[in-house]
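--- STAGE predict ---
source: upstream dedup step, 1 unique chain passed
mode: sequence only
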Amino acid sequence: MKNLLSSIAVLLLISGCSHDIPEFVDLDRLNDTKSACGFTVLRENDFDATAVDWNTYDFWEDGGDTKATYTNLINFATGFLSSIATSRVHQVVGTYTSTDVDGNPITVSGKIFYPKDGKVRNVIIASHYTIGSNAECPSESYSFEGIYAAFGYAVIVSDYIGFGVTADKIHPYLQANTCAGNVLDMALVAVPFLKVRGLKIADDSVILLGYSQGGACTLHVQRLLETPGKYEGAFKIKKNYCGGGPYDIAMTYDVSIKKDKTGIPCAIPMIVQGMSIGMAKPLDMDYFFKDPLKSNYSDWLNSKRYTVQQISTLIGTDRLSEMLTADGCDKSKPETARFYMELKSNSISEKYFPEAPLYLFHSEDDQTVPFVNSQIIQRQIKGRVAINGITPEKYLPDVEYDFGHYGNHQQGATQFFLKVLQKLK
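--- STAGE serialize ---
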Protein backbone atom coordinates (compact mmCIF):
# COMPACT_ATOMS: atom_id res chain seq x y z
CA MET A 1 0.00 0.00 0.00
CA LYS A 2 2.82 2.39 0.87
CA ASN A 3 4.47 1.63 -2.46
CA LEU A 4 1.22 2.44 -4.27
CA LEU A 5 0.89 5.79 -2.51
CA SER A 6 4.52 6.65 -3.18
CA SER A 7 4.03 5.83 -6.85
CA ILE A 8 0.97 8.07 -7.04
CA ALA A 9 2.84 11.01 -5.51
CA VAL A 10 5.93 10.53 -7.69
CA LEU A 11 3.94 10.17 -10.90
CA LEU A 12 2.05 13.35 -10.13
CA LEU A 13 5.23 15.30 -9.46
CA ILE A 14 6.88 14.23 -12.73
CA SER A 15 3.81 14.46 -14.95
CA GLY A 16 4.63 18.00 -16.04
CA CYS A 17 1.04 19.22 -15.65
CA SER A 18 0.26 22.84 -16.47
CA HIS A 19 -2.18 25.38 -15.03
CA ASP A 20 -4.15 25.70 -18.27
CA ILE A 21 -7.86 26.27 -17.73
CA PRO A 22 -10.02 23.96 -19.88
CA GLU A 23 -11.93 25.63 -22.72
CA PHE A 24 -15.56 26.33 -21.87
CA VAL A 25 -18.40 25.21 -24.09
CA ASP A 26 -20.39 27.95 -25.79
CA LEU A 27 -23.78 27.57 -24.10
CA ASP A 28 -25.45 29.59 -26.88
CA ARG A 29 -24.91 26.58 -29.10
CA LEU A 30 -26.64 24.36 -26.57
CA ASN A 31 -29.81 26.32 -25.85
CA ASP A 32 -31.95 23.32 -26.71
CA THR A 33 -30.48 21.39 -23.78
CA LYS A 34 -29.44 24.18 -21.43
CA SER A 35 -32.64 23.60 -19.49
CA ALA A 36 -34.19 20.27 -20.36
CA CYS A 37 -35.91 17.40 -18.58
CA GLY A 38 -35.85 19.27 -15.25
CA PHE A 39 -32.06 19.73 -15.26
CA THR A 40 -30.83 23.31 -15.72
CA VAL A 41 -27.23 23.81 -16.81
CA LEU A 42 -25.21 26.40 -14.88
CA ARG A 43 -21.83 25.85 -16.53
CA GLU A 44 -19.91 23.18 -18.37
CA ASN A 45 -16.56 22.47 -19.96
CA ASP A 46 -14.29 19.85 -21.43
CA PHE A 47 -11.78 18.61 -18.91
CA ASP A 48 -8.35 17.23 -19.78
CA ALA A 49 -6.86 15.61 -16.68
CA THR A 50 -3.40 15.46 -18.22
CA ALA A 51 -3.26 19.26 -18.31
CA VAL A 52 -3.79 19.87 -14.61
CA ASP A 53 -1.52 20.64 -11.70
CA TRP A 54 -3.33 18.48 -9.15
CA ASN A 55 -1.60 20.14 -6.22
CA THR A 56 -3.74 23.25 -6.64
CA TYR A 57 -6.29 23.94 -9.34
CA ASP A 58 -9.20 26.33 -9.80
CA PHE A 59 -11.80 24.37 -11.73
CA TRP A 60 -13.86 27.30 -12.92
CA GLU A 61 -12.51 30.52 -14.42
CA ASP A 62 -15.29 32.51 -12.77
CA GLY A 63 -15.02 30.68 -9.47
CA GLY A 64 -13.60 33.51 -7.37
CA ASP A 65 -13.15 31.71 -4.03
CA THR A 66 -13.79 28.13 -5.12
CA LYS A 67 -10.14 27.08 -5.33
CA ALA A 68 -9.55 23.75 -3.65
CA THR A 69 -6.06 22.67 -2.57
CA TYR A 70 -5.48 18.99 -3.16
CA THR A 71 -3.41 17.66 -0.32
CA ASN A 72 -5.08 14.49 0.88
CA LEU A 73 -4.71 10.94 -0.28
CA ILE A 74 -8.03 10.76 -2.11
CA ASN A 75 -7.28 13.79 -4.25
CA PHE A 76 -3.77 12.63 -5.10
CA ALA A 77 -5.25 9.33 -6.23
CA THR A 78 -7.87 11.18 -8.27
CA GLY A 79 -5.19 13.07 -10.11
CA PHE A 80 -3.21 9.93 -10.77
CA LEU A 81 -6.13 7.87 -12.04
CA SER A 82 -7.44 10.69 -14.18
CA SER A 83 -4.04 11.44 -15.68
CA ILE A 84 -3.70 7.89 -17.02
CA ALA A 85 -7.03 8.08 -18.84
CA THR A 86 -6.77 8.40 -22.60
CA SER A 87 -10.08 10.18 -23.24
CA ARG A 88 -11.24 13.66 -22.32
CA VAL A 89 -14.22 14.21 -20.06
CA HIS A 90 -17.07 16.67 -20.38
CA GLN A 91 -18.47 17.97 -17.09
CA VAL A 92 -21.80 19.73 -16.63
CA VAL A 93 -22.89 21.52 -13.46
CA GLY A 94 -26.61 22.08 -13.08
CA THR A 95 -29.60 22.26 -10.78
CA TYR A 96 -32.74 20.23 -10.26
CA THR A 97 -35.63 19.99 -7.82
CA SER A 98 -35.50 17.66 -4.82
CA THR A 99 -36.97 17.69 -1.30
CA ASP A 100 -35.53 18.75 2.05
CA VAL A 101 -35.77 16.97 5.42
CA ASP A 102 -39.32 18.28 5.87
CA GLY A 103 -40.44 17.11 2.44
CA ASN A 104 -40.52 20.61 0.94
CA PRO A 105 -39.29 21.29 -2.63
CA ILE A 106 -35.76 22.65 -2.86
CA THR A 107 -33.36 23.44 -5.71
CA VAL A 108 -30.20 21.33 -5.43
CA SER A 109 -27.05 21.24 -7.56
CA GLY A 110 -24.76 18.52 -8.82
CA LYS A 111 -22.50 17.50 -11.65
CA ILE A 112 -22.66 15.11 -14.60
CA PHE A 113 -19.42 13.73 -16.04
CA TYR A 114 -19.42 11.95 -19.39
CA PRO A 115 -16.98 10.92 -22.13
CA LYS A 116 -16.22 13.69 -24.63
CA ASP A 117 -17.05 11.39 -27.55
CA GLY A 118 -20.60 10.90 -26.22
CA LYS A 119 -20.36 7.11 -26.19
CA VAL A 120 -21.51 5.81 -22.79
CA ARG A 121 -21.17 2.23 -21.60
CA ASN A 122 -23.35 2.68 -18.51
CA VAL A 123 -24.68 5.39 -16.25
CA ILE A 124 -23.17 5.48 -12.75
CA ILE A 125 -25.29 7.07 -10.02
CA ALA A 126 -22.71 8.03 -7.41
CA SER A 127 -23.10 9.15 -3.79
CA HIS A 128 -20.10 11.16 -2.63
CA TYR A 129 -18.05 10.78 0.54
CA THR A 130 -17.90 13.14 3.52
CA ILE A 131 -16.75 16.68 2.76
CA GLY A 132 -16.55 19.87 4.81
CA SER A 133 -15.95 22.85 2.55
CA ASN A 134 -18.05 23.93 -0.39
CA ALA A 135 -14.89 23.87 -2.51
CA GLU A 136 -14.85 20.07 -2.10
CA CYS A 137 -18.35 19.43 -3.41
CA PRO A 138 -18.84 17.85 -6.88
CA SER A 139 -20.11 21.03 -8.55
CA GLU A 140 -16.96 22.91 -7.46
CA SER A 141 -14.30 20.24 -7.94
CA TYR A 142 -13.39 17.17 -9.92
CA SER A 143 -14.75 14.69 -7.40
CA PHE A 144 -13.20 11.25 -7.16
CA GLU A 145 -16.22 9.49 -8.64
CA GLY A 146 -15.76 11.41 -11.89
CA ILE A 147 -12.69 9.35 -12.82
CA TYR A 148 -14.93 6.66 -14.31
CA ALA A 149 -16.16 9.04 -17.03
CA ALA A 150 -12.69 8.82 -18.57
CA PHE A 151 -13.30 5.10 -19.07
CA GLY A 152 -16.62 5.35 -20.87
CA TYR A 153 -19.19 5.98 -18.13
CA ALA A 154 -21.61 8.83 -17.49
CA VAL A 155 -21.34 9.69 -13.79
CA ILE A 156 -24.10 11.57 -11.96
CA VAL A 157 -23.17 13.08 -8.58
CA SER A 158 -25.43 15.24 -6.41
CA ASP A 159 -23.92 17.88 -4.13
CA TYR A 160 -26.54 16.92 -1.49
CA ILE A 161 -28.37 19.68 0.37
CA GLY A 162 -25.87 21.91 2.17
CA PHE A 163 -23.39 22.27 -0.69
CA GLY A 164 -23.33 23.93 -4.09
CA VAL A 165 -26.33 26.22 -4.54
CA THR A 166 -27.58 25.27 -1.05
CA ALA A 167 -24.27 25.97 0.73
CA ASP A 168 -26.08 28.36 3.06
CA LYS A 169 -28.07 25.46 4.54
CA ILE A 170 -27.05 22.82 7.09
CA HIS A 171 -26.09 19.56 5.47
CA PRO A 172 -28.44 16.76 6.67
CA TYR A 173 -25.49 14.45 7.27
CA LEU A 174 -26.48 10.75 7.08
CA GLN A 175 -30.19 11.56 6.85
CA ALA A 176 -30.94 8.43 4.84
CA ASN A 177 -34.06 9.25 2.84
CA THR A 178 -33.16 12.90 2.28
CA CYS A 179 -29.64 12.29 0.95
CA ALA A 180 -30.61 9.21 -1.08
CA GLY A 181 -33.61 11.15 -2.39
CA ASN A 182 -31.30 14.00 -3.49
CA VAL A 183 -29.20 11.46 -5.39
CA LEU A 184 -32.17 9.80 -7.09
CA ASP A 185 -33.99 13.04 -7.91
CA MET A 186 -30.91 14.19 -9.80
CA ALA A 187 -30.62 10.86 -11.63
CA LEU A 188 -34.29 11.03 -12.65
CA VAL A 189 -33.64 14.25 -14.58
CA ALA A 190 -29.99 13.72 -15.55
CA VAL A 191 -30.50 10.46 -17.46
CA PRO A 192 -33.20 11.95 -19.74
CA PHE A 193 -30.98 15.06 -20.09
CA LEU A 194 -28.14 12.90 -21.41
CA LYS A 195 -30.47 11.27 -23.93
CA VAL A 196 -31.75 14.66 -25.12
CA ARG A 197 -28.13 15.61 -25.67
CA GLY A 198 -27.83 12.68 -28.03
CA LEU A 199 -25.46 10.54 -25.98
CA LYS A 200 -25.48 6.89 -26.93
CA ILE A 201 -25.95 4.83 -23.76
CA ALA A 202 -25.20 1.16 -24.45
CA ASP A 203 -26.92 -0.26 -21.35
CA ASP A 204 -30.18 1.05 -19.85
CA SER A 205 -29.40 -0.39 -16.41
CA VAL A 206 -27.51 1.76 -13.90
CA ILE A 207 -24.52 1.21 -11.63
CA LEU A 208 -24.65 2.55 -8.06
CA LEU A 209 -21.47 3.63 -6.32
CA GLY A 210 -20.35 5.17 -3.04
CA TYR A 211 -17.68 5.10 -0.35
CA SER A 212 -17.88 6.12 3.34
CA GLN A 213 -20.87 8.45 3.71
CA GLY A 214 -21.46 7.62 0.05
CA GLY A 215 -21.35 3.90 0.82
CA ALA A 216 -24.23 4.21 3.27
CA CYS A 217 -26.10 6.57 0.96
CA THR A 218 -25.79 4.33 -2.08
CA LEU A 219 -27.18 1.35 -0.14
CA HIS A 220 -30.13 3.55 0.83
CA VAL A 221 -30.46 4.49 -2.86
CA GLN A 222 -30.71 0.78 -3.65
CA ARG A 223 -33.23 0.32 -0.83
CA LEU A 224 -35.45 3.10 -2.19
CA LEU A 225 -35.33 1.60 -5.68
CA GLU A 226 -36.28 -1.84 -4.36
CA THR A 227 -39.07 -0.96 -1.92
CA PRO A 228 -42.58 0.46 -2.48
CA GLY A 229 -42.66 4.23 -2.78
CA LYS A 230 -41.76 7.15 -5.02
CA TYR A 231 -38.61 5.60 -6.50
CA GLU A 232 -39.52 1.92 -6.73
CA GLY A 233 -38.43 0.51 -10.07
CA ALA A 234 -37.24 3.88 -11.42
CA PHE A 235 -33.97 2.28 -12.55
CA LYS A 236 -32.81 -1.27 -13.11
CA ILE A 237 -29.70 -1.80 -11.01
CA LYS A 238 -26.84 -3.57 -12.74
CA LYS A 239 -24.67 -3.59 -9.62
CA ASN A 240 -24.10 -1.55 -6.47
CA TYR A 241 -20.52 -0.89 -5.35
CA CYS A 242 -20.54 -0.02 -1.62
CA GLY A 243 -17.38 0.75 0.32
CA GLY A 244 -16.70 1.48 3.99
CA GLY A 245 -20.16 2.80 4.81
CA PRO A 246 -21.73 3.54 8.23
CA TYR A 247 -24.73 1.31 7.54
CA ASP A 248 -25.49 1.12 11.26
CA ILE A 249 -24.88 4.66 12.52
CA ALA A 250 -25.84 3.84 16.11
CA MET A 251 -23.31 1.02 16.21
CA THR A 252 -20.68 3.29 14.67
CA TYR A 253 -21.30 5.89 17.36
CA ASP A 254 -21.22 3.22 20.08
CA VAL A 255 -17.89 1.81 18.92
CA SER A 256 -16.34 5.29 18.74
CA ILE A 257 -17.48 6.07 22.29
CA LYS A 258 -16.21 2.73 23.59
CA LYS A 259 -12.80 3.24 21.99
CA ASP A 260 -12.87 6.96 22.84
CA LYS A 261 -11.36 7.66 19.45
CA THR A 262 -12.35 8.42 15.87
CA GLY A 263 -10.39 8.62 12.64
CA ILE A 264 -12.28 11.69 11.41
CA PRO A 265 -13.08 13.96 14.39
CA CYS A 266 -15.38 16.27 12.41
CA ALA A 267 -17.74 13.35 11.65
CA ILE A 268 -18.91 13.21 15.28
CA PRO A 269 -20.44 16.71 15.48
CA MET A 270 -21.67 16.29 11.90
CA ILE A 271 -23.62 13.19 12.95
CA VAL A 272 -25.18 14.93 15.96
CA GLN A 273 -26.15 18.00 13.96
CA GLY A 274 -27.25 15.95 10.94
CA MET A 275 -29.62 13.87 13.02
CA SER A 276 -30.94 16.94 14.84
CA ILE A 277 -32.22 18.79 11.77
CA GLY A 278 -34.34 15.79 10.83
CA MET A 279 -36.13 15.70 14.19
CA ALA A 280 -39.44 17.37 15.07
CA LYS A 281 -37.76 18.71 18.21
CA PRO A 282 -34.10 19.50 17.45
CA LEU A 283 -31.36 18.32 19.78
CA ASP A 284 -29.63 20.73 22.15
CA MET A 285 -26.08 21.04 20.82
CA ASP A 286 -24.91 22.53 24.14
CA TYR A 287 -26.05 19.31 25.80
CA PHE A 288 -23.76 17.22 23.58
CA PHE A 289 -20.70 19.36 22.87
CA LYS A 290 -17.85 20.55 25.05
CA ASP A 291 -15.85 23.68 24.36
CA PRO A 292 -14.19 24.64 22.12
CA LEU A 293 -16.50 22.60 19.86
CA LYS A 294 -19.63 23.93 21.58
CA SER A 295 -18.72 27.56 20.90
CA ASN A 296 -17.45 27.05 17.36
CA TYR A 297 -19.27 24.12 15.69
CA SER A 298 -21.66 26.36 13.76
CA ASP A 299 -18.79 28.20 12.04
CA TRP A 300 -16.59 25.14 11.63
CA LEU A 301 -19.32 22.95 10.15
CA ASN A 302 -21.77 25.33 8.54
CA SER A 303 -19.71 28.14 7.06
CA LYS A 304 -18.48 25.59 4.48
CA ARG A 305 -15.09 27.33 4.56
CA TYR A 306 -13.18 24.41 6.05
CA THR A 307 -12.24 21.03 4.66
CA VAL A 308 -12.70 17.83 6.63
CA GLN A 309 -9.04 17.92 7.60
CA GLN A 310 -9.20 21.56 8.65
CA ILE A 311 -12.29 21.01 10.80
CA SER A 312 -10.62 18.09 12.51
CA THR A 313 -7.56 20.24 13.18
CA LEU A 314 -9.73 23.02 14.61
CA ILE A 315 -11.47 20.53 16.92
CA GLY A 316 -7.99 19.63 18.14
CA THR A 317 -8.61 16.10 19.37
CA ASP A 318 -9.68 12.67 18.16
CA ARG A 319 -10.96 11.72 21.64
CA LEU A 320 -14.73 11.70 22.00
CA SER A 321 -14.42 12.31 25.75
CA GLU A 322 -12.82 15.66 24.90
CA MET A 323 -15.51 16.59 22.35
CA LEU A 324 -18.68 15.26 23.97
CA THR A 325 -20.23 15.65 27.40
CA ALA A 326 -20.70 12.62 29.65
CA ASP A 327 -24.48 12.94 29.24
CA GLY A 328 -24.12 13.01 25.47
CA CYS A 329 -22.51 9.57 25.65
CA ASP A 330 -25.07 8.10 28.06
CA LYS A 331 -28.00 6.38 26.33
CA SER A 332 -29.96 6.25 29.59
CA LYS A 333 -30.41 10.04 29.41
CA PRO A 334 -33.64 11.11 27.63
CA GLU A 335 -31.95 13.57 25.24
CA THR A 336 -29.30 11.02 24.26
CA ALA A 337 -31.97 8.31 23.88
CA ARG A 338 -33.83 10.55 21.42
CA PHE A 339 -30.61 10.96 19.47
CA TYR A 340 -30.08 7.19 19.34
CA MET A 341 -33.60 6.63 18.02
CA GLU A 342 -32.78 8.98 15.14
CA LEU A 343 -29.49 7.15 14.51
CA LYS A 344 -31.34 3.86 14.27
CA SER A 345 -34.06 5.21 12.01
CA ASN A 346 -31.40 6.40 9.53
CA SER A 347 -29.46 3.12 9.59
CA ILE A 348 -30.06 0.23 7.21
CA SER A 349 -33.00 -1.65 8.70
CA GLU A 350 -32.45 -5.27 9.66
CA LYS A 351 -35.61 -5.98 7.64
CA TYR A 352 -34.05 -4.73 4.40
CA PHE A 353 -32.70 -7.38 2.07
CA PRO A 354 -30.86 -6.25 -1.11
CA GLU A 355 -32.09 -7.78 -4.34
CA ALA A 356 -29.67 -6.45 -6.98
CA PRO A 357 -26.03 -7.57 -7.28
CA LEU A 358 -23.89 -6.02 -4.57
CA TYR A 359 -20.15 -5.51 -4.06
CA LEU A 360 -19.44 -4.81 -0.39
CA PHE A 361 -15.94 -3.55 0.42
CA HIS A 362 -14.52 -2.75 3.84
CA SER A 363 -11.07 -2.57 5.36
CA GLU A 364 -10.92 -4.55 8.58
CA ASP A 365 -8.44 -1.93 9.87
CA ASP A 366 -10.88 0.96 9.43
CA GLN A 367 -10.95 3.06 12.63
CA THR A 368 -13.31 5.70 11.26
CA VAL A 369 -16.20 3.56 10.03
CA PRO A 370 -15.75 0.32 11.99
CA PHE A 371 -15.67 -2.95 10.04
CA VAL A 372 -18.64 -4.20 12.08
CA ASN A 373 -20.88 -2.11 9.79
CA SER A 374 -20.28 -4.42 6.85
CA GLN A 375 -20.32 -7.51 9.06
CA ILE A 376 -23.85 -6.54 10.12
CA ILE A 377 -25.03 -6.37 6.49
CA GLN A 378 -23.39 -9.73 5.78
CA ARG A 379 -25.10 -11.31 8.79
CA GLN A 380 -28.47 -9.87 7.78
CA ILE A 381 -28.23 -11.41 4.33
CA LYS A 382 -27.06 -14.80 5.56
CA GLY A 383 -29.39 -14.71 8.55
CA ARG A 384 -32.47 -14.14 6.46
CA VAL A 385 -31.62 -17.17 4.39
CA ALA A 386 -31.32 -19.27 7.54
CA ILE A 387 -34.62 -17.95 8.93
CA ASN A 388 -36.50 -18.74 5.75
CA GLY A 389 -34.88 -22.12 5.39
CA ILE A 390 -34.10 -21.52 1.73
CA THR A 391 -30.82 -22.53 0.17
CA PRO A 392 -28.46 -19.62 -0.53
CA GLU A 393 -28.23 -20.53 -4.22
CA LYS A 394 -31.95 -20.01 -4.60
CA TYR A 395 -32.43 -16.96 -2.42
CA LEU A 396 -29.25 -14.93 -2.17
CA PRO A 397 -28.58 -12.11 -4.62
CA ASP A 398 -25.17 -11.90 -6.25
CA VAL A 399 -23.13 -10.49 -3.35
CA GLU A 400 -19.35 -10.17 -3.34
CA TYR A 401 -17.76 -9.49 0.04
CA ASP A 402 -14.33 -7.89 -0.23
CA PHE A 403 -13.05 -7.69 3.34
CA GLY A 404 -9.36 -7.48 4.11
CA HIS A 405 -6.55 -5.55 5.74
CA TYR A 406 -6.54 -2.55 3.43
CA GLY A 407 -5.35 0.07 5.90
CA ASN A 408 -7.20 2.96 7.47
CA HIS A 409 -10.32 4.64 6.10
CA GLN A 410 -8.52 6.82 3.55
CA GLN A 411 -6.22 4.02 2.41
CA GLY A 412 -9.28 1.82 2.07
CA ALA A 413 -10.86 4.48 -0.14
CA THR A 414 -7.96 4.32 -2.58
CA GLN A 415 -8.17 0.52 -2.68
CA PHE A 416 -11.94 0.63 -3.17
CA PHE A 417 -11.90 3.05 -6.10
CA LEU A 418 -9.00 1.20 -7.73
CA LYS A 419 -10.77 -2.15 -7.37
CA VAL A 420 -14.00 -0.77 -8.81
CA LEU A 421 -12.05 0.72 -11.71
CA GLN A 422 -10.51 -2.67 -12.43
CA LYS A 423 -13.96 -4.28 -12.42
CA LEU A 424 -15.49 -1.63 -14.67
CA LYS A 425 -12.64 -1.51 -17.21
